[in-house]
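Usage

Read records sequentially. Each one opens with the input sequence:
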Amino acid sequence: MSFLAPLYALGLLAVAAPIVFHLIRRRPKGEVPFSSLMFLSPSPPPPANRRRLDQVLLLLLRASALILLGLAFMRPFFRQEAAAAGGEQGNCVVVLIDTSASMRRGDLWARAVAHADAALADCKPTDRVAVFAFDRTVRPVLGFAESDHLEPHQRAAVARERVGRLTPTWGGTELGRALVDATTAILEVGATEKAPRGKIVLVSDLQRGARLTELAGFEWPPSVELELRTVTDEQGNAGLSLLTDRAESERGTQSVLRVRVTNEAGAKQERFRLAWSGTTGADVEAYVPPGESRVVKVPRPPAGPTPVLRLFGDVHDFNNAVHVAGSRRQELTVFFLGADSPTDPAGLLYFLERAWDETPDRAVRVVARKPDAPLTADEVRTAPLVVLAGTPSAEVTTVLDKYLRDGGTVLTVLAAPRPLPALAGAGTQPVEEANLERYAMLRDIAFDHPLFAPLSGPQFSDFTKVHFWKHRRVTEQHLAGARVLARFDDGDPAVLEKAVGRGRFVVFASGWQPADSQLARSSKFVPMLTALLELRAGRTIVGTNYRIGDRVPLQPASAATDVRKPDGTTAALAPEATSFDGTDQPGVYTLETAAGLRTFAVNLDPAESLTAPLPVETLEQFGCRLAKRGADDQRAAIERQQRNAELERNQAIWRILILAAVAVLLVETGLAGWRTRSGRQEGVTP
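and closes with the structure output:
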């Protein structure tokens, strides 16, 4: 039982009045008659023993009447009937927990778990509860659907148990996306039922590096409130990030890397030291005042498998390491089978040798052979590309056929009318020269194919300036089952491709030498040949600076099978995987491909180093409806008082108590009158 006006309980003190009066008014029993009182002075008789009560039944009746009146004025009611009547509707509550890398600082995570437990404890039995965790992605810990099938006491226990199993990840903070997903989950619940009021309890360090992009185009619903439960750290933080993983030459001899050191405002430290782990080189000192950042050049250590640059002098070390993939350059060999001279500017070989510049990641060597010169399978086994510009011998054709089926790429260039080589089921019909009035251009280009994909952007896809003076006519009879990747504007195929085993047989119906076309002197030539090279060799990923959660692109033709993570675990890849999505920890990853092992580095998102508190006004500017804890408590108290008043009014228990008090008083009056009459009769009896 509860009371609407509990202060009226002070009126129950009036129960003491009848007891006091009964003690004071009590007189001695019996009288002794005297013959004369003339020698005595009149005085009232002294009271008898005050510790003895008289007329106990009357006393109890009078006290009961006062108690009933006091309870009636307190306006009692029963809460159990409110739950049975179902008059109170619960809210939809989402507890949103930040598990990004910045939560690894100090005791932030332990405090965040405590805040989450407190938020779950504050939920009423009628509330619908869900728990989400987020970093760069949002994942449900306990969804509404699962939560609805649990009893209220089980729901809180299950939610707390799952929150206790969470740990901070290495991902960035996509706060905007998390808020949008949590709001959407609440709105989806309201779409199927009577729309309840929703609340998102955000447990986070609310750091300045959190991304809010998703909130820019999102209209925050008025029925959803955002309650902030922020955990902060006052010690400051410094961070280290890699600007570029490409080494630069310093004074022509020394190779250096450029890194950025940031120091948050309010930090107490400003002098730091950078050093490579596992090496004996000199350390680099860095002076970074609080609230600023500095770009520092660090000499790269001698070639090693996994160099790690570390920052010393910071309080928190979660973001004080930069991983750099070992410099392992690809050494590729491309075979050219033709009669061209490498010094002849009118030939194919002249432009082919100059198509690929040497880079820190890759060196391409072109080996020229006559089409009928001896060629072994061991020589071409690891070659990413074979360019065929003549008619090969039967022995060479056999070697190329095996090379194709093992995953190689053969490019046949028809620089003159000649039959296609006996590869990929090509026919032996002669190939004729096309009749052109002036020149031909390309159309119907398959930009979804890896050959043209690098040129699919609007700034690169214009081929109208590439003119073809001559080309050969290749029909369906020449290469049955081939896919046409591009056509000339007269309708003849310009580029064809046919799969052979795990390899590709590609045909150019025109040459790139100046006598045939302008292709070699256009900006399209190098990207196209590089794409052909990467059909088997794969795109180089050595030294690429990926971040946690980034998708690493893969070439299906590279036959990548496994990825070894920094912690030693191995992730298997699907046979035709085009990307690797498991970059969930910083460090150096090793990719196993048909061309050998390749490494790539994954580092922390630099935004996680921006740990200064995000102004709450920023969330309000994006439309978030923030809940005021004091205002919420006051509003909840008013609503609770209104519900109690309505419940008390409907039950009207006070009326029953008033009637009971009146009945008790009637009994007390009758009993007191009867006792008075009885006492008088005894007094007059002789």
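Summary fields computed downstream for this record:
- The radius of gyration is 45 Å.
- The chain is about 25% helix and 25% strand.
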